[in-house]
Write a structure and sequence with these properties.
The chain has 125 residues and is an alpha+beta fold. The chain has two domains: 68 residues, Roll (CBS-domain); 49 residues, CBS-domain (Roll), CATH 3.10.580.10. It contains five helices and five strands. A three-stranded mixed β-sheet has the order 1-2-3. The protein has a two-stranded antiparallel sheet with strand order 4-5. Helix 4 crosses helix 5. The radius of gyration is 18 Å and the shape is elongated. The termini are far apart. The relative contact order is 0.16.
Length: 125
């Protein structure tokens, strides 16, 4: 099953707008095949409507913001978490030469890294 947070570039912008109404979905990635071409958030939908675009006629690629921050697959998790925190992002696409591989979510990474840390040393009394 395809990721419900990814639509193809030729899909109707309305499809992405409908996905944004689901709980916990704040953005929808736009792909052309396997290549990431953009991202659509609520602000992109509002801007498109303000410009007079018909969301039923416009494509997702026409509405998407093409400036998507991504991370490479070989970036260590602690660095990925740091970058996400710096940018105040909950999720970040993972790409390899523009090909969308997946999406990292900040909360599970933070939890995993916390589990991997050794416990603090015991204080001597």
């Amino acid at each position: 099953m395809p990721d419900p947070r990814v639509v193809q570039a030729g899909a109707r912008a309305r499809e992405a707008a409908e996905l944004l109404t689901h709980p916990h979905v704040s953005s929808v990635l736009v792909a052309d095949g396997e290549r990431l071409v953009g991202c659509i958030g609520a602000e992109d939908i509002v801007a498109a409507v303000a410009k007079g675009l018909d969301l039923q006629a416009a494509t997702a690629a026409e509405v998407a913001d093409g400036n998507v921050v991504t991370i490479p697959p070989d970036l260590p998790l602690d660095e990925a978490l740091h970058r996400m925190a710096e940018l105040d992002l909950e999720r970040m696409p993972v790409t390899d030469d523009g090909r969308l591989l997946g999406v990292l979510a900040r909360e599970p990474i933070a939890r995993r890294l916390a589990e991997d840390e050794p416990p603090p040393p015991l204080e001597e009394s």
